[in-house]
From TrEMBL:
<feature type="site" description="Lowers pKa of active site Tyr">
    <location>
        <position position="88"/>
    </location>
</feature>
<dbReference type="InterPro" id="IPR044483">
    <property type="entry name" value="AKR1D1"/>
</dbReference>
<feature type="active site" description="Proton donor">
    <location>
        <position position="59"/>
    </location>
</feature>
<dbReference type="GO" id="GO:0006699">
    <property type="term" value="P:bile acid biosynthetic process"/>
</dbReference>
<dbReference type="GO" id="GO:0047787">
    <property type="term" value="F:Delta4-3-oxosteroid 5beta-reductase activity"/>
</dbReference>
<comment type="similarity">
    <text>Belongs to the aldo/keto reductase family.</text>
</comment>
<dbReference type="InterPro" id="IPR036812">
    <property type="entry name" value="NAD(P)_OxRdtase_dom_sf"/>
</dbReference>
<dbReference type="InterPro" id="IPR018170">
    <property type="entry name" value="Aldo/ket_reductase_CS"/>
</dbReference>
<protein>
    <submittedName>
        <fullName>Aldo-keto reductase family 1 member D1</fullName>
    </submittedName>
</protein>
<dbReference type="InterPro" id="IPR020471">
    <property type="entry name" value="AKR"/>
</dbReference>
<dbReference type="InterPro" id="IPR023210">
    <property type="entry name" value="NADP_OxRdtase_dom"/>
</dbReference>
<dbReference type="Pfam" id="PF00248">
    <property type="entry name" value="Aldo_ket_red"/>
</dbReference>
<feature type="domain" description="NADP-dependent oxidoreductase">
    <location>
        <begin position="36"/>
        <end position="304"/>
    </location>
</feature>
<feature type="binding site">
    <location>
        <position position="144"/>
    </location>
    <ligand>
        <name>substrate</name>
    </ligand>
</feature>
Length: 327
């Protein structure tokens, strides 16, 4: 989670390092969590000081997130306005008439009146319906015609209705962002773009483009990701074993993970690491008592391999597959 002083900080506050705190690790795409583990992890994170929770309907644990928030409010630990919750519109819900209905379903599950940020999870639309991953007789995902501008207009309507304080996107490349930014009659531009971002994949060109348009980059997999070769590119070595990150960590008595998170924080990237380990949740928060030098930042920048862990190759034939472009 990212601690934010107000629920609408993406729009109302200057984005500085004091607000760019590490986020509670989200469940990986399509990965369910053991019953109860998300509930306890969120409560531990809130007690630790986290305030930005990154979730999604397809993580199948929003009911536990909502329960944890409500319990902490009841304890007097937090107020609703202290929490910054990010929800996501899934790919089967892109048709404009489904956007608000989907968000309202999320709000009901969370037991909240609004989300602080609502984002389009992927620029690729799938066939609408009850199936999260609609497949044909050959087991292939059934795609749906994508009209990102029409979907965005429905997102704008959700913001205007007060159901979402801010709206943004995820996994969008420059072309797709420009499509939204240049849309005739644009009312609200995306405040954020959530993408893979870590020392092995630093996204310098996309980061600069988003800076020029005041779009905050939210970096998922900031510590690398799982080594599940069924959907992850394992040609890149594990990030946490990198000798440079570990050597810098030794200097500051920090872990490689803390150094990787600090690196992105100092670049102005919001980080959302994943963990259900109480010790790791607390460690991921302890990155504000040291700073990397300019030399160390350059050393870490030089680690960039420009290779994704999360390629989503199973959908690379989708017309709006975002990773074929340079950025």
């Amino acid at each position: 989670m990212v601690i934010s002083p107000t629920a609408s900080w993406f729009e109302e506050k200057e984005v500085t390092s004091e607000f760019l705190l590490p986020a509670l690790l989200k469940a990986l795409l399509c990965h369910e969590t053991p019953k109860g583990s998300c509930l306890e992890s969120v409560k531990i994170a809130i007690d630790t000081g986290y305030r930005h929770i990154d979730g999604a309907f397809v993580y199948f644990n929003e009911h536990e997130v909502g329960q944890a928030i409500q319990e902490k409010i009841a304890e007097g630990r937090i107020k609703r306005e202290d929490i910054f919750y990010c929800g996501k519109l899934w790919s089967t819900c892109h048709p404009p008439e489904l956007v608000r209905l989907t968000l309202e379903k999320t709000l009901k599950i969370l037991q909240l009146d609004y989300v602080d940020l609502y984002i389009i999870e992927l620029p690729m639309a799938f066939k609408p319906g009850d199936a999260i991953y609609p497949k044909d007789e050959n087991g292939k995902i059934i795609y749906h015609e994508t009209d990102l501008c029409a979907t965005w207009e429905a997102m704008e309507a959700c913001k205007d209705a007060g159901l979402a304080k801010s709206i943004g996107v995820s996994n969008f490349n420059r072309r797709q962002l420009e499509m939204i930014l240049n849309k005739p009659g644009l009312k609200h531009k995306p405040v954020s773009n959530q993408v893979e971002c870590h020392p092995y994949f630093t996204q310098p060109k996309l980061l600069e483009f988003c800076r020029q348009h005041n779009i905050v980059i939210v970096g998922y997999s900031p510590l690398g990701t799982s080594r599940d070769e069924t959907w992850v590119n394992v040609s890149s070595p594990p990030l946490m074993k990198d000798p440079v990150l570990n050597a810098i960590g030794k200097k500051y008595n920090k872990t490689a993970a803390q150094v990787a998170l600090r690196f992105n924080i100092q670049r102005g990237v919001v980080v959302i690491p994943k963990s259900f380990n109480p010790q790791h949740i607390r460690e991921n928060f302890q990155i504000f008592d040291f700073s990397l030098t300019e030399k160390e930042m350059k050393e870490i920048e030089a680690l960039n391999k420009n290779v994704r862990y999360v390629e989503l190759l199973m959908w690379r034939d989708h017309p709006e597959y975002p990773f074929s472009d340079e950025y």
